[in-house]
From TrEMBL:
Coiled coil: none
Pfam families found in the cross-reference section: FTSW_RODA_SPOVE
Annotated GO CC locations: cell division site; plasma membrane
Membrane-spanning intervals of the chain: 12-32, 52-70, 77-96, 116-133, 145-162, 168-185, 192-211, 275-301, 313-344, 350-374
Keyword Glycosyltransferase in record: yes
Keyword terms: Cell cycle, Cell division, Cell shape, Glycosyltransferase, Membrane, Peptidoglycan synthesis, Transferase, Transmembrane, Transmembrane helix
Organism of this sequence: Heyndrickxia ginsengihumi
Protein name (database record): Probable peptidoglycan glycosyltransferase FtsW
Location of the protein in the cell: Membrane
GO biological process assignments: cell division; peptidoglycan biosynthetic process; regulation of cell shape
Enzyme's top EC category: transferase
Catalytic activity: [GlcNAc-(1->4)-Mur2Ac(oyl-L-Ala-gamma-D-Glu-L-Lys-D-Ala-D-Ala)](n)-di-trans,octa-cis-undecaprenyl diphosphate + beta-D-GlcNAc-(1->4)-Mur2Ac(oyl-L-Ala-gamma-D-Glu-L-Lys-D-Ala-D-Ala)-di-trans,octa-cis-undecaprenyl diphosphate = [GlcNAc-(1->4)-Mur2Ac(oyl-L-Ala-gamma-D-Glu-L-Lys-D-Ala-D-Ala)](n+1)-di-trans,octa-cis-undecaprenyl diphosphate + di-trans,octa-cis-undecaprenyl diphosphate + H(+)
EC number: 2.4.99.28
Length: 404
């Protein structure tokens, strides 16, 4: 049985996941050497050593979720437990959380920091996938099928948004929308939801206008200013984006060589987190950028393929939800680095420094591998059944004896 399970694993997902994590570890060391000494006054390998510990924990949790049957997550006890834990975690932020990058999003546990909003992404994916999979018979019923999961999604988004962490709240909301669209609802029901959303926005628009100074703070507006006019504000709001452009442009096709970045020497404020792709482009050129983008694209497309092929609605929505999380987060980070969208402070999956993000993504990849394993196991089982039927059919065929 164990050998059959091992044979059914999708080793291509595992290989790409491990390669991206190891590549990210190398680039974190390269990008953070100077920042660690100059800004934080610690050893040059400080962030590298911390990420190694994060990676060990992440790999362990990946193995746990890869072998744990994903259908366990659909049980009511599990759903109630994770919902309670994430709500308590998000509420505790407002009491015990500390501020980092203008957001009260972190809990300090000893020497480590934990970001509950990161894990809220996976909780939303599991919860929405489980609920909508159970409600397939009446999924277009607004009161029974549509509304209850939406309430939980909106509550989580509001709790994350008022930290304030608009970037993470937006990702959670977009992930939820992806699962809703993929849940099997009719187009008419989806358009009804869209209309209700617009109506709510119109109703609350006067309150938004009155609270505009609290919502659209100078810090948030500066991100739009830096995005729209980076070179006019290169000394202030556009500093990060301009230096990101310089890093990408100076890398060219071949790159300056591993460890040879100029922008990480104090010019680019966050070289090992939000803007690590700019350092990759500067040091490794097009090859380094393509390695990361193609790796992430493979995981996203492979996850969508698994979601489409598997017959179990819960497994299908899980795979699509995890793939959408990876795709949305990658797009937001890469879009900010190259100036397509405003900078939001979202890390690049598997590559940027950060324990919470890496652990979350590793848990998610383990679940995706487990869903894929069950899909492959079912397909192999059906193939064997068909072969047995063919064998039985041929063995039972009557023989005709012909004589002259």
């Amino acid at each position: 049985m164990f050998k059959k399970i091992l044979k059914s694993f999708d080793y291509s997902i595992i290989a790409v996941y491990v390669l991206l994590c190891l590549f990210g570890l190398v680039m974190i060391y390269s990008a953070s050497m100077v920042v660690a000494v100059q800004r934080y006054g610690v050893d040059s390998a400080f962030f590298y050593d911390r990420q190694k510990l994060n990676l060990c924990l992440a790999f362990l949790l990946f193995l746990v979720t890869a072998f744990l049957p994903y259908k366990i997550y659909q049980t009511n006890k599990f759903l109630i437990s994770i919902m309670g834990i994430i709500v308590v975690g998000l509420l505790s932020i407002f009491v015990f959380g500390h501020v980092s990058n203008n957001a009260q999003s972190w809990l300090e546990i000893g020497t480590a920091s934990l970001q509950p909003s990161e894990f809220a992404k996976l909780v939303v994916i599991i919860y929405l996938s489980a609920v909508y999979a159970k409600k397939q018979a009446y999924i277009d019923s607004f009161n029974r099928g549509v509304a209850p999961p939406l309430i939980f999604l909106i509550v989580v988004c509001l709790m994350v948004g008022i930290q304030p962490d608009i970037g993470t709240a937006s990702i959670i909301f977009l992930i939820g929308c992806t699962i809703i669209v993929s849940s099997g609802m009719k187009f008419k029901t989806i358009m009804r939801l869209f209309s209700i959303g617009l109506g709510v926005l119109v109703v609350f628009s006067p309150f938004i206008f009155l609270a505009r100074h609290k919502i659209f703070t100078p810090e948030r507006l500066s991100r739009f200013t830096g995005f729209l006019h980076p070179f006019k504000t290169e000394g202030s709001d556009g500093l990060q984006l301009v230096n990101s452009y310089l890093a990408i442009g100076s890398g060219g096709i071949k790159g300056q060589g591993l460890g040879q970045s100029i922008q990480k020497l104090g010019y680019l404020p966050e070289p090992h987190t939000d803007f690590i792709m700019a350092i990759i482009a500067e040091e490794l050129g097009v090859a380094g950028v393509l390695f990361v983008i193609l790796g992430l694209a493979y995981l996203v497309l492979r996850g969508i393929y698994i979601g489409v092929k598997i017959k179990d609605p819960f497994g299908s929505l899980l795979a699509i939800g995890i793939s959408s999380m990876l795709a949305i987060q990658s797009f937001i980070n890469l879009g900010g680095v190259c100036g397509l969208i405003p900078i939001t402070g979202v890390p690049l999956p598997f590559i940027s420094y950060g324990g919470s993000s890496l652990v979350l993504l590793s848990l998610s990849m383990g679940i995706l591998v487990n869903v894929s394993m069950f899909k492959n196991y079912e397909e192999n089982f059906k193939k064997k059944q068909e072969k047995h039927k063919e064998t039985d059919y041929h063995s039972k065929r009557p023989f005709k004896i012909y004589s002259r």
